[in-house]
Amino acid sequence: MAEEKKSFLAKYVKIIVIFAVIAGSSSGIFGKAISAGSMAIGFWRLTLGVPFFAVPVLLNMRDELKAVSRKDLIWSFVAGAFLFGHFFSWYNAVKMTDIASAVVLAALHPLVVLLVTIFIFKRHVGRRPIMGIILALLGGVLVAGLDYRHLSSGNFKGDILAFAAAVFMGVYFLVGNEVRKNVVGPVYVFLCFFACWVCFAVGSAATHTQLLGYSTKDYLLIVLLTLVCQIGAHAVFNLCFGYVDSLYVSAWESGESVFAIILSFIFLGEIPTSWELLGAAIVVIGLLYYNHYTGLEEKENELQS
């Protein structure tokens, strides 16, 4: 049964990544509707999300958990810490700067992954896939509607936090991609999420964050946020790292703004502007261009091997 699931994930992983991106793109809608603070949202999001992997791992995968080396254990916790950094930076950035500026800056994580992949890991990335990523990022600028007014009205500290969210996301993806080469998916997700939960628990205690007393609506939305974004997006991303490179996941995740437009129209009735539609089209073209030439490179590498 395990082998069948693995084969299914391996066969359809690129499509699964796209569905995970769609799930993750709903986080803005949830964040807008939840009145609780960022630390409280993160704490409950991880408190609810960790058991989804802790229970099956501790019951059925104890041998795999014990087999994790000290090095991979440390790096799993590092990934969880960077995931915490991403969540914390992003939730605070959108409160301190213009949302358009935050979206554009936070979507720069493919560049972080790209630079580390090329200059630190010394891996080859074709010119055309790079062009696809850049095109998608430029489309994201139009989707966010970034213009002079947004730049001049944005808060500098918020912009720094949004860029930090991009860096944290990029490193989180890169570390996960490397650890997943040695650690099975459910075990890695459990360790990573648990580490992120520890960071939020410590952070909540240190900042005296209110964790109880919010409305029933807030708690219901946090449950949905956990199921859709934490499990449906981040958990799936980490599981997919065993079959696709972090650059692929990061590149498609940069297209989250396009799906956010669609979801906002469906659930919030927000009609996109002509600039947003043009930007969305450019993002899609860029990602399809990237996906096409990445696929060609993979086929060439298979033939050569």
TrEMBL record:
The keyword Transmembrane helix applies. InterPro entries: EamA_dom, EmrE-like. Residues 15-143, 157-288 form the EamA domain. GO terms for cellular component: membrane. The chain crosses the membrane at residues 12-30, 42-61, 73-93, 99-121, 130-148, 160-175, 187-207, 219-240, 247-268, 274-290. Belongs to the EamA transporter family. This is Drug/metabolite transporter (DMT)-like permease. It comes from Aminicella lysinilytica.
